[in-house]
Specification:
Structural class: alpha+beta
Order of helices and strands: HEEEEEEHEEEEHEEH
Distance between the termini: 102 Å
Radius of gyration: 27 Å
Strand content: 15-25%
Number of strands: 12
Largest sheet: 4 strands, antiparallel
Shape: elongated
Strand order of the largest sheet: 6-7-10-12
């Protein structure tokens, strides 16, 4: 007669321990894969935002400039000079019977930020993804806030469900004057143009030497931890004082610590206390893509 024998409690406990170890070993890589996928998804979405900003600037411009560009020629119709110092915009020669050409150059501009839903009762605090209305002189009511995702036609949030922070140098978003790639020969009128942005990207919150100075526009995803970000489902963001110092520089409503300013941002490799993703458009990229052949005078 054959005797059947089952597993002892000790054997079953050993098996359960082994299975638990195996499952735990698989769970960590799976979690890391999920986060890696979300980072890749957010980076792809931020590239779409980058392209949408260029597309907006290409299609939004003003043709009336406070200082028209005048091209001067000699009696033979050969080009001599121009008041906006933009040889590329003036024909090399014209009819000898003409003494010059005066025209209002095209000036492009970027969108205003959307007012972030930070819990106050301002009428502009709508968090609807639409850029805020400019004043009579074309100036945005704020230069830093939430990404105007509806205006740009991009995703409203990153892969973790949080709004993007968006900052723009004020003159680059002015829809009355637009941005210029070269100073005028005279500055009265208008006031001196801004050929560079006023936003600086630093490698850390010590704000010593900027790794990318003079940036016109910056977009921030607040990463997996979402510290300080406005969630797309609503709710008041974490108080700035509770956000790690490097990430604090990147908030929609910054709380900088000296020597940093409200125009300071931080971008570096991920750490335990920093996982923000930061992109920007440099002045050179804007001028090369939006103002080919020396446009935007």
């Amino acid at each position: 007669m054959t005797t059947q024998r089952g597993f002892t409690l000790i054997e079953m406990a050993i098996v359960l321990i082994i299975v638990t170890i195996l499952i735990g070993g698989l769970a960590m890589p799976l979690s890391a894969q999920i986060q890696a996928r979300r980072v890749a998804e957010t980076r792809a979405d931020m590239q779409a935002i980058h392209d949408a900003l260029l597309g907006y600037a290409m299609s939004h411009y003003v043709t009336t400039s406070p200082l028209p560009c005048t091209c001067s020629y000699d009696s033979s119709g050969v080009y001599l000079s121009s008041t906006c110092d933009k040889t590329q915009l003036c024909p090399a020669s014209i009819s000898a019977s003409s003494i010059g050409i005066s025209f209002s150059p095209i000036r492009h501009h970027l969108p205003c930020p959307d007012a972030p839903n930070d819990g106050n009762t301002s009428t502009t605090n709508d968090d609807d993804g639409i850029e805020e209305a400019r004043d009579a002189s074309g100036v945005c009511p704020l230069s830093r806030g939430a990404l105007p995702w509806a205006t740009l036609g991009v995703k409203a949030q990153d892969a973790w469900g949080n709004r993007y922070t968006y900052a723009v140098t004020s003159p680059f978003a002015n829809d009355r004057t637009g941005f210029t790639s070269m100073p005028y020969a005279t500055t009265t009128p208008p006031p001196p143009p801004h050929t560079l942005g006023d936003l600086d990207v630093y490698p850390d919150s010590s704000c010593g030497t900027a790794s990318m100075p003079g940036v016109p526009v910056i977009v921030v995803s607040h990463g997996a931890n979402g510290r300080g970000a406005q969630n797309a489902n609503g709710g008041t963001p974490l108080a700035a004082s509770a956000v790690p110092i490097d990430e604090r520089q990147n908030l929609a409503v910054p709380m900088p610590v000296a020597p940093c300013t409200n125009n300071s941002f931080v971008s570096h490799s991920p750490t335990d206390t920093f996982d923000d993703l930061v992109i920007w458009l440099s002045s050179n990229e804007l001028f090369n893509r939006i103002c080919p052949a020396g446009g935007c005078p």
